[in-house]
Each structure stands twice: as structure tokens, then as C-alpha cells.
Amino acid sequence: MGLLVMCMVFTFMFTNTISLNQEQENDRITALPGQPEVAFSQFSGYITVHKKHGRALFYWLTEAATPNPLLKPLVLWLNGGPGCSSIAYGASEEIGPFRINKNASSLSLNKYSWNKEANILFLESPAGVGFSYTNTSSNLKDSGDKRTASDALKFLKRWMSRFPQYKYREFYISGESYAGHYVPQLAEKIHNYNMNHTNPIINLKGFMVGNAVTDNKYDNIGTIEYWWTHSIISDTTYKSITSHCNFTTPKYSENCDNAINYAWSHEFGEIDQYSIYTPSCNKTSGNFTLTRLKNTLVRRRASGYDPCVERRAEKYYNRPDVQHAMHANYTGIPYKWTACSDELLDNWKDSEFSMLPKYKTLIAAGYRIWVFSGDTDSVVPVTATRLSLSQLNLTVKTQWYPWYSNGQVGGWTEVYDGLTFATVRGAGHEVPLFQPERGFLLFDSFLNGKNLPRS
Fold this sequence. Notes:
globular; Rossmann fold; 10-stranded mixed beta sheet; 34% helix; two-stranded antiparallel ribbon
């Protein structure tokens, strides 16, 4: 961090005993029901982002599990959907400190929690996701990329006013899937905000996204290639899709829709599309529903990644004692907490066609940018991400090589001028769920600005 920022941080740390303001103390989590004892602090609660409409976003902060968390950066984690909860996925299945046990009555520790290296801030965004709410019902039917980014920036500014010890901290954003939109859009918002303020409070250093929706045209072409090269669809269906589908237009032809629907209905079989080589749940506990995510081929299970795991979250976070401990749902939201909101997904109003222009802007501004991809995901597959990123025409600094974790190839990586790309071997859509040790090493390397290990 810069000298001025460092001075501000250390002045704050050492001149006086840190006195937490009352709002911050009100958000402190003493302990979650069934939680093992931990040494780090937790906070959760609401930040209002639109007073007139009554929009408030719910957060959960797990401070770094280190002797001095003030020396560690702040990382914001966002899940996608659009309409899916960062607490359901990021916090409870991937990078958070706890795992919900099978009976949904207790928690266990995650050995590879990212809060071992950073303070992790989970945000349920936009309003209508999880515990985040709006008092204006029409907000659930007119959400989109632009409002989500604007509300997230308002959240950060107001959250940092409540938690002033984080104002000048090194700050990073991470996420996955449709957060491939949320993350660079928010990064650009912060960049523009900082450019227009002489004393920016958001010390953004970079971002990292995984299995990220990036560019509608190239993502879709790369997805079809993955289906075919991994023997999920037939030669006939592959030829039918490639001949009938024009992925440069927002609306597909009837022949294109028919070809894709045929693949889903007759050729995919009962596999987990988010992790094509692992067992899927039985039919009664994990039925598929087909949805079109605007202009992409993303097909999402209504219940998220693994219904056998996710049901634990839905049981746990709907418990009144859990909600009380987390200071959640005190307004009496008129629906149950769910991992994803179909209402938001079905009514998403604006979705940018491509994130590539934002990448160009943010690369030019000098931010640290990493893109990673679990290689067994057929929803936003590695071929899609590689094809999209290739359109940036970046200069290669370090050529493609295998990286290692615990003596095994963890994946492959290439370092460009302004961006690092890495695959994670044997990981599905949620990389830290399927390969937690490799996901943690990836995160640690990103935070420290180091290339992934060659041996």
C-alpha cells in the first residue's frame, strides 16, 4: 500500500485503543447456533442503500483469523445468479469459515477458509437476494446490472462509515459465475468514484473472478465447444447448434432454441452440469429447471449447485435462532430465505453484452486482475472463458505452464501483461467447493501478487 495510506492505517491502529462505534457493536455476532469456538470476530447486519424505496443489503463480515486482522486486506465476495446468495454459496459451501453439518443444527470449521489470509465480507446482492430486502415490490421485477453496481457502491461507502477501520485498507473483490458481471462492474464504479474524489476511502487494488460470465458471444461459442469436446452432445446436435445459432443477437431463432433444448432434454442425461464428473443427487432431491439467463446459455438448477448440500443452508438460515444471532430478517420478510431468487432471475432487466471493455479500462488502470476456471464446469466452462479473454489480445509475459498444489498438478496458468489466467484441475463451477486446497493456494497467490508455483 502507499506510504500515505499506510500511515493512516498505523496511526489508526496505534495512537489510541480502537473504540467501536455503537452501530458496529450492534452488528457483532457473539456466536452462531452450533458454532465451534473461534478466535476471530464476526459482524452481520443491514446497510440501507435506498431510503425511499426501503432497499437494504445484508452483509456478513468474518474477520481474518490472525493475531492482528488489521494488517490483513479486506475482500468482498459476490455470488451470481443473478439472484443467488453469497451466504448460501460463498460463505457456506466455498470460502467461509464454517460448513453446515448434515443435520443443519451445528457448524464445523473449514480448513481452507479464506479468512485465514484476509477479512472476508459476504454481501447478499441485489435487494431481494437472501436476507437483503426492498419495501418496494416493483424492485424485484426491475433489477439489473446497473442498479446492482450502484447499490453495491453505496453499500461499501456506508459500510465503511460504520467500520472506519477498513476505510484505507487494501481492498479486493472476488466472486464467480454471474459475478463475472458484478465484479468488474463494481470495480469500474469504484475506479470512477476514486478518480473524482481527492481522498478516496475505497483502496481498491484488484479483483479475481472464477467461471465468470464474460462475453455473450464468445462465452456461448466456447460453451458449445465444451459440450461437444467433452462428449456431452452428439455431432448432429453440435452441427445443428453451430449452424442455427447466431450468438451476436439478443434473441435466438426458434431453430436455435430447439437445438439447444434437444441437447438438454435428450443428450445431457442426469449429470450435474456444474461438475460433470462427480455424482449428482437423486432425481427427487435435485430436479432441473430450464431458464435462459438473458442472452447466455446458462442453465441453472432452481436449487443451486448441489441440492443435497444446499438444503442444509436453507434449513439453517431459516431457523429463528440463527436469524436472531445474525441480526437478520428483523423486518419480517414475507418469504423464506432461499439460496436463489427465481423472481429476480426471471425479471432481470439489463445485462451487459460484454465485460471486455471494462477489462480493458481496468487493465489500463493497473489493477491486479486474475481470472480462474474450474475445468469440469459445463455451465460457464473453461473453453468459454479462454475464448472470451483471447479477444483482449494481451501480451504474454509468462507462457502456459502447469502449477502445483501439494505435489500434484493443480491446474494450468498463463500470465499476460495486465491479467493472470488459471485453470483449476478437477474443479467444477464452485472452485473452492470441489478443490478447496487448490482454491486457497490460488487466492493466497493472488493476494500476494505471486505467480502460481511451478513445483
